[in-house]
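WARN no homologs supplied; continuing
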Amino acid sequence: MLIRLRKVMLFLTPVLGAATAAMLLSTATGISAPGGEKQTELKTAVGLPISRVALFSSGVGYFARSGDVDGNVRVDLTFPERDINDLLKSMTLEDFGDGQVSAVSYDSREPIDRTLASFAINLNNNPTLGQILTQARGEQVEVVLQQNVVGQPGTISGKIVGLETQRSTKGEDVVSQSEVLNLWCADGMRAVKLSDVQRLRFVNPTIEAEVRRALEVLSLNHDQQKKAVSLHFTGQGRRKVQVGYVVENPIWKTSYRLVLDKDGKEVPKVQGWAIVENPTDEDWNGVEMSLISGRPISFKMDLYNPLYVNRPTVEPELFASLRPPTYSGDMMARNNLADMPAGNLGGFGGGAGFAGGGIGGPGNAPMPAPMAAAAPMAPSPKMALPRMRTEQLLKQQAETDRFNFDAVQSAATAAKLGDNFSYNINKAVDLARQKSALLPIIAGEIEAKRVSIYNASVQAKHPLLGLRLKNTTGVHLMQGPITVFEGATYAGDTRVLDIQPKEERLVSYAIDLGTEVNPVNGDGTSRITQVKVQKGIVITTTRFREEKTYQVVNRSQTDRTLLVEHPNRKNQGFNLVNTVKPVEETAELWRFEMPVAAGKSGSLTVAEERDQGTSIAISNSNDDQIRFFVSQAVTSEAVKIKLQEAMALKAKVDNAKRELQKVEADIQRITQDQNRLRQNLREVPQASEAYKRYLKKFDDQEKEMDGLTTQQKELQNSEFQARVAYETFLANLTVE
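OK structure emitted
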């Protein structure tokens, strides 16, 4: 009988070979081993509680579960389906005794209905006993009956033939209906009412294992949003085991409280609190907790869904068969078959084909006999690792995969972990499911200097009350909000980005109404600072100057240290000139510090200059533009001389053009006049005086036209020579 087995997906440790995987598969499904010996099944152990939690600021958390097991055990856990991919990517298992980690089996992504349908007995839709037995027709069962009838046997064993419904009637009315199980027993067919059955079991251990596995699937899938994961540990005696994994988790957050002394005599104090959340459906009882800042790279990968590779489909080559030919018999009757070797008889694959010729062909060897069924292959020594070697590899693997959390002390201190920073809670943490908690991580003094920060784009009239914080806590301060108190009075809120130890950072928490700032823009100026010529192009450098004056009035009763934030325009070419040195420079801002006493006023002028270059081709410039460059005081004598030479050459070209244009205009005038004369000559009589006068004028213009044409050619040549000289001069003109 063909039994459908459940598909079990295994996550095997790297040191296990194919033979070990097959053994684990048999053990997990309860299938009998060859030879009739049933493998020892793993017993379910007590669940492993969460013992350690490490939360990262990148949106993941590391969870460690640990506990004691005894012998060969299976630990069943459930996880939300969304966490399975992270689980497959990051899970590590450790057996700290002499045992070993064998495998991890987990539910497939298929719905439970499809999973249950894959078992030999389908438990979908809450089947009745009769429906279960109907699915097992042909299976051997052992039935224990209730002793309601004298002489009725206590136990019956037989194969299920089927079920039927019998009706009891009284007159024309149906009194009752009962299901009857028909069994084929050693002494023949027997009918047993299901109502008389006290106990029934399947004799076939495979069917029993299938039913047991189906029931386990049902028990582990009461929550449709979760998937069951089974951890398999094999070994002797009682020992500690641990499983760790990284899954998605809300980032842990920080918030701070900063207490300032009103008189400024005491050192400011800071408190830092971590906000952690337990979004799971499991309570955290007595867990070791670490809060790690940093941005480790973390990503998702679909390892849960089955992936298939497209393979090409290759069609077998088909050849048309030959029609068997027929041949006439030999007129000379001979019988040579008796002398022919047996291997040379005609036929397919050997001999001389049909009737002494054809497909086979003479001399072909006979086809070999079909290969006998191969005996079962003995396992290769390389496929089964010796027990001692396997244990050594497992120990090495456990040492390699183990996270070094023991190096992190459990005291309420912070520790540097590579490029990350870890806060370790000094006491075990209890946090119920779906709850959040505030945990203290920092408490101590911090260096802070009071300042007023002015930025016109933030507040046009007043600066902000702020602090120049220096992280003297000795630990990394992760980004978060800060609530500022002056004594016992709330002063304002601010926010800070990550601050490394000894790093300084500005924060602002309120508007400084006692100080007023009025920014005044000065008149911008510009002047040419350089004129040079490069390959006939005049390049000038113009220096633009801009000024802004910050007028400050301190109307409060305390001295102020004002930080003026001015835009940093280095990327636009501006540089500070004749200005006090800024105390800080960022990519966007200059920060200038100026003290302002109580009831006093002051000012700060920020001057900036930028050089801007322009270029213009001399050939495209008129004389006025060139004279402008010559007239500049910053223009050197060499540049002035060359520009004047260029103007002279350009004048020659312009003069030649003007003369040529005049001649061409005369030619155009005469041509138009001759067209008029030709028209008149065609219309007036030849004997008239007008005709003679028109003809004489036409002859005179022809003589003038000859002279103008000659002059045009000479002027064209002169203009060309002047233009070539001018362009050659400009192409080689480079002077500063």
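Residues 144 and 155 are 4 Å apart (CA to CA).
OK
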